[in-house]
Amino acid sequence: MIREKSCGALVYRKKQDKYELLLIKHRYGGHWSFPKGHVEQGENELQTALREIKEETGLDVNLREGFRQSVEYYPKPHVKKQVVYFLGYPENDTVKKQEEEISEYRWCPLEQADSMVTFKNDKNLISQAKKFLIEKE
């Protein structure tokens, strides 16, 4: 069994008292999800998440303490992948997408985000993020 690990984040902003979530459409696969990528040697989970968000979106993000969700799935036979997600907000919300990997991006109202993402794991993550943000307000 080959094990892979990636880290990323659900990136949100608040506009007129409403939360919006940044969704990216992956150029390969064409699914809507969140910025994430493989852990590089010498990095911890937080460093990986921040680097990948910056590479894919151009955003510098502040990660919220107390939100860490992990999902596991099998992208190919004999490959088990773990993805660790954090929750964070950008210092500014001007996105510069990484053309090689991202075909589109969208700031989506949090209430509609789960209908936009492709995978059930992502729908669950959005639900956890909503719960976290409501509790912390």
Automatic annotation (TrEMBL):
InterPro entries per record: Nudix_hydrolase (IPR020476), NUDIX_hydrolase-like_dom_sf (IPR015797), NUDIX_hydrolase_CS (IPR020084), NUDIX_hydrolase_dom (IPR000086), Nudix_hydrolase_domain (IPR051325), Tetra_PHTase (IPR003565)
SUPFAM superfamilies reported for this sequence: Nudix (SSF55811)
Pfam family, one: NUDIX
Statement: the UniProt record of this protein carries the keyword ATP-binding: no
Gene Ontology biological process: AMP biosynthetic process; ATP biosynthetic process
Location of the Nudix hydrolase domain: 2-130
Family, as annotated: Belongs to the Nudix hydrolase family.
Protein name, entry field: Bis(5'-nucleosyl)-tetraphosphatase [asymmetrical]
Organism: Youxingia wuxianensis
